[in-house]
Amino acid sequence: MVEEVRTVKLNLLNLTERKSKLLSELLNVCKSAGDHLFKTAVYLEVFNKPESRFALQEVEYDHIKERFALHSQIIVDLCKDVFTACRNGGLNFFKYTIPYNVPRSSKLAETENGNPVISVATLDGRIGLPISQDGAWERFNEFLEDGYEFTSFRLKKEQDDWHILVPLRRESEVKGEFDSVLGVDVGSRTLASVTVLSKERVEEQLYFGRDVWEKQRDISIRRSELQSHADRGSSKARRKLRDLKNYESNFVKTRCYQVAHKIVKLAKQYNSVVAIEDLTGLKNARGHRKSDRRTKRMPYCTFRVALESVCKREGVPLIAVDPYHTSQSCPNCGSLGKRKQKGVIFECECGYRANADRVASLNIALRASETIHNSKRIFAQSPKGNVPVNGHDWRDWGSEIMSSHGYSPPERKPTTSIVGS
C-alpha cells in the first residue's frame, strides 16, 4: 500500500473587513507564538531535554494558551510545525500559514443557499469563509469522489488575498501491471532529473528545465538593479519590479507544466509509476546564504501541483517517497557518499561516481520500487560478468569498479563511460 497525496489550492471570495482583520490578527499571533516555540525548541536541544513535539507541547502548551489565547488545536499544530521545521534545519515564519485541523479547529459546511464555506477558529470565535466555486473547487470535489480525504488544511495570505491549501490523501495499492518506475528529482539548477527504472535496467535518464534556473538567475540580477533605483525613490523602478515578479511567476508556472507533460508522456511510453520526493517544508529550512537563496528559489510546490494535475488527467499513478539522503546514498552499495565539484558529481568510497542529480533520481526510483514491491533492490553499474551496464546487481564490487558520468546539458541523455581494471 502507498499513500497518494494531492494538493488543492482553493480560492476564497472577497471577505468582509472584519473577517480579514480577524485572520490577519490570528496570523500575526501565530508568528509570535511560533517564534517563541522555536526558541524553546532550541533550548530543549541545547540542554539535552527529550526531543519530541510532545515534549515541546508539554513544556509550552499552558504558557502559549495563557499568553496568546490561541485555539487549543492550533497550539498543538504549531508545536508540530515548529518541531518538524527544527528537524529540517530551521524555521522562518515570515511567510507562515495558519494550520487547521478538521474537525477540531475547522470544518467544511454550506450556507442555507447551498454555497460552500469553511468554518475556522479565530481569536474571537469561529467565522465562515466563503469558497469560490471555480475550477479549483470542482477539482477538489472530484478528488473527494475518487476516495481522497483530508484532515487538515492551511490558510495562506498572498498580498491581500487568502487561499486554502488542502492536502488530500488516500491509501491505494499500486497494481503490478506497471513495467517500470520513473523517479523525479527536483533541484535548484535542473528543475527535474528523471530516471526510468525497469526490472532489468535503467531505461532512460534525462534532464528537464535547466532554463528555469538560468531565467531566475537573470531576473535576480535585474531585480537587484531595479531595487537600487526603487530605494532612491523611483516609481518607475517599483512598477518594473512588480511587472518582473509577475513575469517570473508566469514563466516558472508555464515551464513547470511543460516539463510535467514531458514526464507524464515518458511515463506512459514506459508504462511507469511516477515517484517524487516529499519535500514539504523545504522553504522553512535554513542553510548558508547562497544555498538558502537557491533552495527558496526552487519551484517545488508549483512543479508538484503541475505534476499531480497532469498525472491525474492522464491516469498515471504518482507516489511521494521519503527524501532522506536520496542525493547522498550510493545506489551501488547503499552507504553515504560525497558531492564534489560544487555538488555536481557524487562519489562513494566503493568507487561509484556519477552526476549527483542522476544519483538522486535513481535513488528515488529505487525507493519507490521497494515501496511498491516490498523488496530491496541494489543498483550497480558493473562491466563484470553478464550484468548489463545499466543493470541491477546484488553483489558489491567494492573499489574495483568506478563508473564515471559527466554532467550533461538539460533534456539530453548523459554520456556514460566505464573505467575499470
UniProtKB/TrEMBL annotation:
<dbReference type="InterPro" id="IPR010095">
    <property type="entry name" value="Cas12f1-like_TNB"/>
</dbReference>
<dbReference type="GO" id="GO:0003677">
    <property type="term" value="F:DNA binding"/>
</dbReference>
<keyword id="KW-0238">DNA-binding</keyword>
<dbReference type="Pfam" id="PF07282">
    <property type="entry name" value="Cas12f1-like_TNB"/>
</dbReference>
<feature type="region of interest" description="Disordered">
    <location>
        <begin position="401"/>
        <end position="421"/>
    </location>
</feature>
<feature type="domain" description="Cas12f1-like TNB">
    <location>
        <begin position="302"/>
        <end position="364"/>
    </location>
</feature>
<protein>
    <recommendedName>
        <fullName>Cas12f1-like TNB domain-containing protein</fullName>
    </recommendedName>
</protein>
